[in-house]
Amino acid sequence: MTRIIAFTNQKGGVGKTTSVLNVGAALAKKGKKVLMIDLDPQGNLTQSLLPEPPKNTIFTLLLEECKFGEAIVNTTENLLLIPCNNKFANFERQFAADADSQYIMVDFIEAIKKNFPNQLDFIIFDTPPALGLITLNALVACQEVYIPMNSQEYSLTGLNAVIEVVERVKKRTNPDLEVKGMFFSRHNSRKYITRNMVEHLNSEFPNKLMNTHIRVNVALEESPSLRQSVFDYDPSSNGAKDYSDLTDEIIKL
Ligand SMILES: Nc1ncnc2c1ncn2[C@@H]1O[C@H](COP(=O)(O)OP(=O)(O)OP(=O)(O)O)[C@@H](O)[C@H]1O
Ligand SMILES: [Mg+2]
Q1: Pocket test for ligand 1, best of 159, 162, 221 (most atoms within 8 A of CB)
Q2: CB of residue 123 inside a 6 A radius of ligand 1
Q3: What is the pLDDT of residues 64-78, one digit of tens each?
């Protein structure tokens, strides 16, 4: 069984890409075979893994301009990436009129599974900061949603919007879908407001708050520009510890 996961929040800069990068790397280090799919036209995940802009991407694959083998990159052992670039901003224009425009990623995942039979333990989507057709496709194709949140700019309205979309997709198209966990991705445990939020979230969304929160950590900020996961950049950092712990929790869920 391949677990298919999306890190989603329509709010920008809340740690989606950082989470995909480092949970992906942690899973791979723990011996899982992982495919990360960059679905964000900003291409931040891709840029933090590849030295050169990719010729082939999720978009050229979907347009059948290339084969799987030409687009999938083996970044490190057990860790594969399907890259993205800004051309993917044309996804809606290209596919929105199709009757099955919500199911493009479902079909794509089926094709991946055929190409990698029994080989992948995890497929992880990085999604853009919007609840448009791209994110909808990820939600229809995945089983598990994790929501990174920024405790400094926390807004319940934003959070409710993600959860409402997940519930709608679950009800109409993907009954397997579930919000598995929420976590703070830049946690400052000394701040009172954060403790207050933890209590609030626990009562509003019971059993959804992960035990691990990611502390504010400079290694997490610096590592992407050197195209390293936090585990390669500074394995003794708080960032490495927290993402390792979060990943252990995800494995057990
Ligand atoms: N725990 C942390 N400590 C310090 N910096 C962090 C931490 N987590 C993320 N960052 C930094 O915050 C910025 C935003 O993070 P990231 O790119 O992961 O967010 P995002 O949700 O993917 O953003 P977007 O919505 O634009 O895709 C990045 O510069 C990242 O390096
Ligand atoms: Mg991002």
Answers
A1: 221
A2: no
A3: 999 999 999 999 999
Residue closest via CA to ligand 1's atom 9 equals: 15
pLDDT band at 153 (very low <50, low <70, confident <90, very high): low
Q: Which domain holds residue 152?
A: 3-252
If one counts the domains in the chain, the total is 1
Structure tokens, 3: 């677990």
Residue 187 near ligand 1, beta carbon < 6 Å:
no
Q: What is the pTM of this model?
A: 0.96
CA torsion 45→232→248→245, rounded to 10°?
-100
- For the domain that residue 117 is a member of, what is the CATH number? 3.40.50.300
Tokens of 237: 């950092």
CB neighbour list of residue 156: distance below 8 Å, 6 or more residues apart? 204
Sequence-distant (≥ 6) Cβ neighbours of residue 11 within 8 angstroms: 129, 150, 153, 155, 158
Q: Is 44 in the pocket of ligand 1 (CB under 6 A)?
A: yes
State the average pLDDT over residues 38-56.
97
Ligand 1 atom showing the smallest separation from residue 18 Cα: 18
